[in-house]
């Protein structure tokens, strides 16, 4: 059961958090991930990557 949860979809990203954390922290987290990803893979690398090919490089950043 997903009581006390906030679902937020921002661009193509989604986060699930407990309601007590509010909305600003999850959105800020998504923005940081998006910015980090864009800095590392901008300029077309992400657009031409095959499915799951960036997991090894960017997966640890997501866990962090």
Structure commentary:
The chain is elongated. It has a two-stranded antiparallel sheet with strand order 1-2. The model has no long low-confidence stretch (mean pLDDT 78). It has helices spanning 24-41, 45-48, 55-63, and strands spanning 5-10, 13-18. 48% of the residues lie in helices and 19% in strands. It has 64 residues and is α+β, with helices and mostly antiparallel strands. It has three helices and two strands; from the N terminus they run ββααα.
Helices and strands in order, then pairings?
Layout: E1 5-10, E2 13-18, H1 24-41, H2 45-48, H3 55-63
Antiparallel strand pairs: 1-2
Features:
single chain; 64 residues; alpha+beta; two-stranded antiparallel sheet; 3 helices; 48% helix; 19% strand; elongated
Q: Rough shape?
A: elongated
What's the helix-strand series? EEHHH
What's the N-to-C terminus distance? 26 Å
Radius of gyration: 14 Å
Which whole number gives the mean pLDDT? 78
Number of separate helices: 3
**Topology, number of strands:** 2
Would you identify the regions where 5 or more consecutive residues have pLDDT less than 50? none
Task: Note the main sheet.
Answer: 2 strands, antiparallel
Secondary-structure-derived class? alpha+beta
Overall helicity: 40-55%
| Main sheet: strand order | 1-2
Quote the beta fraction: 15-25%
